[in-house]
Design a protein that fits this description.
Blueprint (H helix, E strand, L loop, with lengths): L21 E3 L2 E3 L4 E5 L6 H13 L4 E3 L17 H14 L3 E4 L6 H4 L5 E4 L7 H8 L5 E4 L6 H13 L5 E5 L17 H8 L4 E3 L1 H5 L2 H13 L4 E5 L17 H21 L1
Parallel strand pairs: 3-4, 3-10, 4-5, 5-6, 6-7, 7-8, 8-9, 9-10
Antiparallel strand pairs: 1-2
Helix pairs in contact: 1-2, 4-5, 8-9
This protein binds phosphoenolpyruvate (PEP) and manganese (II) ion.
Manganese (II) ion binds next to loops.
């Protein structure tokens, strides 16, 4: 047992007050509020580039977009793969925003790293140990989502796999857990954010999009996440949510995202003054 009372949490444990800052391009995740925004899936050049330009104009720090989609049904849109990665590269070149994309398969880590600035491990792969081990061998920043059935201890053990492999660049992402509640898609566990702040030095971000599954709830849960001490947010934004090929119910329009950003920056400043 470590000082935290959690089993085998060694490298992820908060020892003293030194917090990890994960550098992504010229951004520093863990310092101030990092906002990651973009579509759930990369769908086409026009869709991605328009969304990327708009989230950049609204003040996003990083662009998200999935090209390998872990869908519940094999008949649902599975993502554009390599073609999507090339589009992400183009969007990064045009906007200067570093890109975050999910990797599903350990065999893809090497070549996907050539296109992505941050590799995302999705909730469904949070305990895919071969994938975590492979990510431990790189120095790419990893955005590690919480598994939908993972305890905080299990989640930190997943981070420990990456850290103990030699990669110190891990960002934790609370994305909601399965509970008996069905009105929301998941239950965003806000208490995980301050809990992690007392357990680990790793940056912690929040994903209210998957955490609620409802566009109308993104703004209050984003503000609440920031108030709870989140180092960042990852938000799904689509130029036309009703046409999104995945997660349309939870996508913000670029205008809604822009409006939210106008509220988040003063909130960040206000909270900074209290801490
Ligand atoms: C996503 O970010 O689009 C995604 C699939 O998230 P999660 O793994 O949290 O469900
Ligand atoms: Mn999604």
């Amino acid at each position: 047992m470590s000082a935290s009372g959690l089993k085998n949490i060694k490298l992820a444990a908060l020892n003293g007050s030194e917090r990890t800052i994960v550098k992504v391009g010229d951004r520093r995740v863990g310092e101030g509020l990092t906002v990651i925004a973009g579509p759930c899936s990369v769908e086409s050049e026009e869709q991605l580039l328009e969304t990327a330009q708009k989230v950049k104009a609204a003040g996003a720090d990083l662009l998200r977009g999935g090209v390998f989609k872990p869908r519940t049904s094999p008949y649902s849109f599975q993502g554009l793969g390599l073609k999507g990665l090339k589009l992400l590269r183009k969007a990064r070149d045009e906007t200067g925003l570093p890109v975050v994309t999910e990797v599903l398969d350990p065999r893809d880590v090497g070549w996907v790293s050539e296109y992505a600035d941050v590799l995302q491990v999705g909730a469904r792969n949070s305990q895919n140990f071969p994938l975590l081990k492979e990510l431990g061998k790189t120095d790419k920043p990893v955005l590690l989502k919480r598994g939908m059935y993972s305890t905080i201890e299990e989640w930190l053990n997943s981070a420990e796999y990456i850290l103990s492999g030699g990669n110190p660049n891990v960002i934790l992402c609370e994305r909601g857990i399965r509970t008996f509640e069905t009105y929301t898609r998941n239950t965003l566990d806000l208490s995980a954010i301050p809990s992690l702040k007392e357990l680990t030095h790793l940056p912690v971000i929040s994903d209210p999009s998957h955490g609620t599954g409802k566009a109308s709830l993104i703004e209050p849960m984003s503000m609440a996440s920031v108030a709870c001490g989140a180092d960042g947010l990852i938000l799904e934004v689509h130029r036309n949510p009703s046409e999104a090929l995945s997660d349309k119910e939870q996508a913000l329009t670029p205008e809604q995202f822009s409006e939210l950003m106008r509220k988040l920056r003063p909130l960040e400043k206000f909270l900074g003054g209290l801490r």
